[in-house]
Amino acid sequence: MSTIAEFRLPAGETTMATTFDVASGVVIELESAVSKTLPSIWVTDVSREEIEAAFRADPTIDSFDLLVRSDDGLLYDVDSPAAQEIYDCLLASDGSLLEGVGVDGWWQFKMRFRDREDLVETHGRLDEAGLTVDLTRVTDVSRVSSGPTRLTPEQYEALDAAFERGYFNIPRQISMEELASELGISHQALSERLRRAYGTLVGAEVNPTDPSSGDSSGSKPRQ
Predict the structure, then answer these.
(1) Which of 9, 30, 81, 194 has a Cα at 20 to 30 A from 63?
(2) What is the count of structural domains for the chain?
C-alpha cells in the first residue's frame, strides 16, 4: 500500500528565506502539477508590490513572472535553482507531491510514496543534503480508515489518490492516465477500481443494511 508523509523543511536551509523575512505574513502555495519541472506558485496575504520587492531581494530567486492576478491571489513563475534542486530531491524516488505550502519561514509538504522504503530513501537524501527534516505524520493508506468499510484497500487507495490529486475537481487537476502512472497501475486497472468503488459506496448509501451492496455477485470483493 502507498504511504502518505507530511513533513516540513526550514526555508533558511532551502529557498526563499529572504522572501519570508521581507514579505512578512506571506503564504506561498505550489500549484498542483505532475511535471518534474518546478510548478508555479500562488502568493496570498501580501500585495504585489510587497512580494515582488521580496523576490528581488532574495538571492535564491533569479527571476519571476506574474501570470495571473485574481481575488484568490497572485500566480507567479519563479526561476529558482535552489528550489528546483529541492523539488528534484523530493521526486527522485517517484513520490508524488500532493501539497506544498510555504509559511512563517517553513516549507510544508504532503507527499505520497509507493511504500515506506521510498519515503525512507527520500528522507535519507534530504538528510544527506544537510537539511533538517521535521516529519510530522506518516500514514499507510490501507490504515487510513479505522471504521468499517466495504472498500478493498486497493479501491480505497485509488479513491484517496483521486481525491487528493484533484481528479474530482471541476475542472480536473489530473487525468486518469497521469493518476494511474502515479499509482503504478494501468489506466484500465484504475478505471475498474474506481468503478467498483463507486458501486460499493452507492450501494452502501442506498441499501446500507445489505452486506453485499455494491457487489451484486455476492462474491469476494475484487480489486
Answers:
(1) 9
(2) 2
Q: Are residues 48 and 66 in the same domain?
A: yes
CA distance 81 to 65: 15
**Is the residue at 214 inside a domain?**
no
Q: In the predicted model, what is the mean pLDDT of residues 99-123?
A: 93
pLDDT tens-digit readout, 174-219 = 888 888 888 888 888 888 888 888 887 777 666 655 554 444 444 4
Report the distance separating Cα 153 and Cα 221, nearest Å: 10
Domain co-membership, 79 together with 177: no
Expressed as residue numbers, the domain containing 106 is 3-140
DSSP for 10-42, written as a single string = EGGGSS-HHHHHHSTT-EEEEPP--SSSPPPEE
- pLDDT score for 37: 81
Cell readout for 156 is: 480505497
